[in-house]
Records
---
Amino acid sequence: MTTIQEILNTMDYGTAPEDSKIVREWLSKHESGFGHFINGAFTKVGETFDVQNPATGDVIARVSQGSASDVDDAVKAARAAQPKWAGLSGHERAKYLYALARHVQQHSRFLAVLESIDNGKPIRESRDGDIPLVARHFYHHAGWAELAEDEFPGAEAVGVCGQVIPWNFPLLMLAWKVAPALAAGNTVVLKPAEYTPLTALAFAQIAAECGLPKGVLNIVTGDGETGAAVVGHENIDKVAFTGSTDVGRIIRQQTAGSGKSLTLELGGKSPFIVFADADLDAAVEGVVDAIWFNQGQVCCAGSRILVAEAVAAKFEKMLRKRMETIRVGDPLDKNTDIGAIVHPVQRDRIAELVNKGASEGLDLCQGTAPEGCFYPPTLATGVSPASVLWNEEIFGPVVTLTTFRTPKDAIALANNSRYGLAASIWSENVNLCLDIAAKVKAGVVWINCTNVFDAGAGFGGYRESGFGREGGREGMAAYLKQPKLKVKKPEAAPAAPNAVPVDGAEIGMIDRTAKLYIGGKQARPDSGYVYAVNGGKKTVGHAGLGSRKDVRNAVEAAHKAAGWGKATGHNRAQVLYYIAENLSARAKEFTDRLVSFGMNNGAAKAEVETAIRRCFWYAAQADKFDGMVHQTKTNNVSIAMHEPLGVMGVACPNGSPLAAMVSLVMPAIAMGNAVIVVPSQDHPLAATDFYQVLETSDVPAGVVNIITGPRDDLAKTLAQHDDVAGMWYVGTAEGAEMVERESAGNLKQTWTEDGGARDWTSAQGQGKEFLSRATQVKNIWVPYGE
Ligand code: NAI
C-alpha cells in the first residue's frame, strides 16, 4: 500500500478503489448458483458454468447453462404474455419502462460495480458511461411506448423477440435490445454472453421489483449453443443479434426462409481520420476514447488511424507521449484508464493477432500492463491495407496508424474494409468534414468526436457490419411491423424456360427477339439462347435467356452508374417524371402487350394506369423522403441521412408483370440505387418494352439493367454477388429462403415476399416502406452549439 508521504515524494498517483461490498454480498447470497429468469421467476439452478472476474481470475458466480428445453420454456412464457402486453395502452407500457429506468438509477452504483467486476471495464466507464446510458435508454423508450400509436400508425408489435448479446457492454446491450422491444409491445427472450451474464440477472431482479408482468422479459443464460437454440426456435418472430460477423453470418443462414425478421449489429474496423488542420490535442484525446475506451472491445472502435502526412510525425509523437500516461490495471480503481480484458481467451486472441502483425515487420509501440488478463495500449505504425492488423477486428486496445496525402486517399483508405460501422473525422474545416462524411461508407460518422452514443440516434452498420438500426426512430421501427399481408395463392415456381438458340432457324423472328438491357444498351444474352414467351396458348415472342455472366456485366454497369446516388433528389425526380410521361405516351402499346399475354383489356389498361401513377408518386418522393436531425447530446446533433444501399438486385413476381416491376424499380431508383432487375419470368416482354421508355427518359446508363430469364437462378447469382448491397425478391417461398441464405456472404440487406401476398395493382404496391427498404440511415454527429 502506497503511503500518502510516498505519493507526495514521488508525485505518483494513489489508488482510489471503489467499494465492492454490496456486490460481494449479493454474490454470496447466490453462492449456490443462478437459475434462469423465466415467466417472472428464477428457475432452479441447473447444470452450471463458472463466471470469473477477469481482473483477478476468481470465480465469482455459477450460472446455469440454458438447454433447449429452458429456451422452450422461456419462449412459451413470452408467447403467452405477448398479446396482453401488446394489448396494454402505450401509456401503460410506458409506465413500466419509466419504472425500469428509475430502478436502474436507484441501483446504479451496484450495477456499475457488478459490471466492472464481471466484465473488467474501469469503474469510471461503467459508472459514468454504461449505467447512465442504460437508464437513458429506458426513459427514451418509455416515450416511444407513449407515442407509438401516433408516430407509427397502423403498425403492430412483431411478437416474441429472441435477443442474443455480447460481453463488451453487457447491460447496455441488454437495454438497447429490451427497451425498444418492450416499448413496441413485444416480449423478449434474451441470452446474455457467457462471460458476462451477471448484470442481466440483476436486471431481471429489477424487472421483478418493478412488477413487470411475468413472461414479458425472460433471460436464459448459457453459451453459443443456448444462443443458437434461441435463434432457431420456431416460435420466435424476430431475432436481434449483436456480436461477431462470423456468428452473424451463421444466424443469417440459419434464419433464412423462416419468416423471422432479423437485425444484425456486427463487427467493425472503423477509420479515425485526422486532417492536417485538426486540433491535434483534441484528436489525440479522441484516439484515447476511440480505442482505449473499454479496452478497445468496442464494435465501433476507431482502430485504424489515418493521419495526414503533413502532421503525421508530430501526431505520432504526441500520441506516443499520451500512451505513456495511460494506466492499465484494477477496474475498480477510479484512476484506471484500461481495465481487464474480458477473458483469457480474448486476451490470447489479441496477443496472437498482434504477434502476427509483428511478424509482418510492423513497428509496434506498447505501453505497460500488469500480469494477468490485461493488455497494454498498443500502436502499430507503417500499416498497409494488406496487414492482418488492418483487416481483422482485434477487439482489443490495439490501433494502427497509416498516413495519407489527399482527402481522396483518405476516403479510399477509410473505405478499404469489408466493414462499415463507424468513422471519426477530425478537421477544423467543417466543409471538409461533411464532404468526407458523405463519402465514407459507415452507418455512424462522428465529426470531431468519437464513440458518442445516445438513445435518440440510430446506431448500426453498412456492409458486413450488419443491418438494421438500434436507437432512435429507426431502432423503434425495427421492433414494429405492418400487419402481415395474407398470401392469397402462393406463387408456383415458373416452369423451366423453353430455351432455343438465338440464331436457331426455328425462331424465324430473330430481329423481334427482345434483348437484355445492360449499361444503357441492348445486349444479346451471353448464353446465346432465348426462350419462348407464351400468351394464352401461343408463343407471342422470345426473350433473352440471361445467365450468370450477364448478371456480372450488369452489376459492373450498375457500379459505373454510382453518380446516380449522388445526384440530388430533385434531379432524380425529373428523370422519374420523364419516365412517367413517356410511359403515359405509350400506354396503348403497353396495354396491348399485356392483352397479348391473355389479360382482358380492362385489367391491362388498369395495370398500365397504375404503373404510370406509381412513377409519378415515386418521382414526387425522390426529393421528399429525407432524413431528420436528432437532438442527442449537448454539443452535438446527429443528422440522420437516408442513403441508397448502392447496387440492388430486384427479382419480380410472375403476376402483374408491368405494375410489379415498376412498383419495385421506381422506389429503388428514386432513392439513388442502381438496379439489376429480373422481370416476370413468364411475361418478360412488358419489361423489355420498358427499356425503350428508359432509353428516351434520360435515365443514365447502368441505373436500370434488365435481365430476363430463369428468375430464381438469376436471383441466386445476384444474392451471392459481393458487389450487390441489397436484394429484393418476390417469388416462391423456396426462392425467398434461397435468397436469404445466399446473401449471407456479404450480409446484404434482403426483402423477400411470396408472390401471392401483394396485389401490385392496389395501394399495397406502393408506400414509404419501399423507400425505407431502399435506403440505409447514416447518422452523422456534428458539433452544435456550446
Ligand atoms: P460471439 O459472436 O461468438 O458472441 C456473441 C454472442 O453470441 C454471445 O452471447 C454468444 O454466446 C452468442 N453466440 C455464439 N455463437 C452463437 C450461435 N451460433 N448462435 C447464436 N448465438 C451465438 O463473439 P465471441 O466469440 O465472444 O468474440 C469473438 C470475436 O467476435 C471478438 O474478438 C470480436 O472480434 C467479435 N465480437 C464483436 C462484437 C461486436 O459487438 N461487434 C461483440 C463480441 C465479439
---
Amino acid sequence: MNVGIGARVKRKEDKRFITGKGKYTDDVRVENQAYAAFVRSPHAHAKVKGIDKSAALAMEGVIDVLDGGQLTGDGIGNIICGWAVTSKDGSPMNMGPWSALATDRVRYVGDAVAVVIAESQALARIAAEAVEVEYEVLPAVASAAKALAAGAPQVHDNAPGNLIFDWEIGDAAATDAALAGAAHVTEISLTNNRLSPNPMEPRSAVAIYDAAEEHYTLYTTSQNPHVARLVLSAFYNVAPEHKLRVIAPDVGGGFGSKIYIYPEEITCLWASMKTGHSVKWTGDRAEAFMTDAHGRDHVSTARIGFDANNRITGFKVDTIANFGAYMSLFSSAVPTYLYATLLSGQYDIANIHANVRAVYTNTVPVDAYRGAGRPEACYLVERIMETAARELGVDPAELRRINFIRAFPHQTPVIMNYDIGDFEANLDQAMAAADVAGFAARKAEAAGRGKLRGLGYSSYIEACGIAPSAAVGSLGAGVGLWESAEVRVNPVGTIEILTGSHSHGQGHETTFAQIVAERFGLPIENVAIVHGDTDKVQFGMGTYGSRSGAVGMSAIVKAMDKVEAKVKKIAAHVLEASEDDIVIEGGEVKVAGTDKAMGWHEVGLAAYTAHNLPPEMEPGLKESAFYDPANFTFPAGTYICEVEVDPETGTVEIVQFTASDDFGTIINPMIVEGQVHGGIAQGVGQALLEQVVYDDDAQLITGSFMDYAMPRADDLPSYNVNHASTICPNNPLGMKGCGEAGAIGSPPAVINAITDAIGNNNLAMPATPLAVWKAIQAAG
Ligand code: MCN
C-alpha cells in the first residue's frame, strides 16, 4: 500500500481517540494529588480590598488558600507579551502588569484572585465559594471604541487613554494621494465579531513538585510545551529551565487558545511547591468561556480607490483592536504582523496604509484564534472588493481577476513577499466546481419558491509557516520561529521522529510518518512520532500559524538527509562498495545494480555494534536538525458560497460551499480536506452564529453554550473541496499550510452571498435570522 506523499492514509492516532484511549491532562493520576479551584472576580473592574480565607481554611480537607500577595512575594513574575510593537511616534507598547493571581485590582470577569488547594475537586470548588473577597467596584468598559473615548474607565495606570500602541504600516501620503486621484472610491466600516475558541477539551494542568530534586513537572493542555517551559522559567521565574519538565499529552483541540501560558499553569506549579502536593486543575466550560483567550474583535474602516479601468490604486485602513484586560504572549503580533501585512490580499496594490490602535478593555485577553489576524484581513479585503464590484457594476469575479497578482515573487507594500501562486487557477476551478454559470437559473427557480438566492466570493491569501527569523528580525518583533527534529534509527531498524511540533488534532502522527516511511521505504507502523515532552524532544516552537508541515516537516527532511548520508557510509563500508553507488530502495539499502543489500535492521545493528563501522565513524544512528524557513508560505484560494434566504424569517441556508485551495504539495489529501472542513465550519460559525457578548458593564453575557451558538451539523453544507496547487519554492517538500485556510477564507464568502441575496450590503456578522430579516426590511 502506498503510504507516501499524496496517499490518503487513515490517521494512525485515531485508533486511540475513537476507542476512548487518548490520554489527556485530566487523565493524569499521580500520588499525593490535590486539586485547585480558583476564586474569580465577579466584577469586570474592581479594587481588591481584602480576602477572608478563614471559612474556606476551616473546611476539612482544604489544604491551603493562596493569594496574589503570596505569589508575588515568592518572586513569581508577571505574565507578559513577548512581541514588541513600536508606536508610530517611536514609543514602546504600554504593557500593564498581569499577575497570575491579582494583587490589588481585578480587570475582567473571571480574573483570578486566589486559589484553593483541597483534597478533592468538589471540595476545592465549594471552598472557593467560601472565600470572601471584599471588592470596591470600579467603572468598566468592554468596547474598544468606547475605551478610547475621553473619560473612559482606565484599565491600566500606565496606558493612558487605554492605548497600548498606535502603529502604522505602509505609506500614508502615497495612499492618500492615490485615493484622492481615484476614479471611484469605495468605503466600508465593519466589525469582526469576537469569538470564543471552544476546543472540545477544556484547559487543564497537573503540577508535580519534587522537593528532593527541587524539580517541577507540568502536564498541560499546550500547543507548544517547550515555549511554555521557556517562558515559565525565563519570564515567570517559576523554576530554572533544567528543573522544569513540561508535557503536553493528547490535547483535544486548541485552535490557538492553548498557545499561551495562563495564570492557572503558573499558579498550579507554584502551589505544588508551596503545599507539597501535586496540584491538578481542570477548567469547566464556564471557566473556558470566561478565561480562554478570545479571538478577533476588530472595528475597521477602509477606503479603496480604483482607476477608470477598475484597477486598484490605493487601500487605506484604520483598525481598532480590542486586546482585553491584559496582553498575552503573542497578542501584539495578531493585529499587526499577522493582519496588516496581509491587506494586499491577492491583489496588485501599489499603495496601502494601515493604522492599528490596540486598546485595553475590561474583557478577557484577546489573542490568536484559528487564523489570528489573517481572517480579519481577509474579511476586510474581500468584503470591500465585493462592495466595490456592486458599486462599480462589475462582476465580482471579474473585478478580482482584473486586479490579481500574476507575476511572482511579488513584493507587496506591506512587507510580505509572495513567493508563488496562481490565483486565477483557483478562481477558475472554484467557479467551474460551483457551477457559477448555472447560478442565474437556480436563483430564478428559488425566486419561484419565494426564496432569495445569493452567491458570494472570497479570494483569500494568508501567510503560514510562521515565522522566518529574517522576517521576524526585520520587523523588530522578537524571536525567529524555526523548528527542530531528531530522526533516530533504532538498532532493530525502526524509526522514531522527535519533533518540536505538537499535534492536537492535525494528524501529525500520520503525515509526519508518511514522509519518513516513503523516504526510507519502511512500513508506516515502523515509524513513531514523539512529541509534546520537553524531556524527550530537544527543543521546539510548537504548533500554530499552520507551520508544522512547512516548518516542522522540513526539519525532519533535513535530519533525514543527515541520516541518509550516514546510512550510505555504513552500507558502503559493510557491503564494500563506493558510497556513491549506495541507494535506498524498496525498504533496503543497496548497491545499485547488484543484489548486495542490507535491511534497515542490519543497518541499525551495524550502527550500534561499533565493530561494523568505518574506523573514523561514531557509533549510533540519530541526527537532529533545526530548520529556519527562508520565507512564509502563502496558501491561497477562492471560496464560493451559495445561500438561500427565507425573506419571511431571515433564515439562511448554505446550499453549496465550494473551495479551491492552493496548499502546495499535499501530503495526505484526506487530512487536508478534514482541516479545510473544520476551518470552514468555524468560519461559517463566525459568519452566521458565534459572538461573544459583554454588556455595558463588561459582564460576560455569553457564558455557556446556551448563549453562544456553535455551528452544528445541520448548519453546515456538504463541502465541495478542490485543489489547484503551485509548489512552494521555499521548503524541501513544497508545502504550504492548510490548517487555518477554511477559517480565513469562508466568513466573507458567506456574508457576500447573503448580502447578494437580500440586496443590502449593510449586514454584520453574525448574520442571525433577526439581523438578516432586519436587513431585508431595511432594503425594502
Ligand atoms: N498537511 C498536508 N499537506 C499540506 C499541508 C498540511 O498533508 N500541504 C497536513 C500536515 O502534515 C498536518 C495537517 O495537514 O498533518 C495540518 O498541517 P499545517 O497546515 O502545517 O498546520 P499545523 O499542523 O501547524 O496545525 C496548526 C493549525 C492551526 S494554526 C490551527 S489554529 C488549528 C489547525 O491547525 N487548530 C486545530 N487545525 C486544527 N485541527 C484540530 N483538529 N484541532 C485544532 O486545534
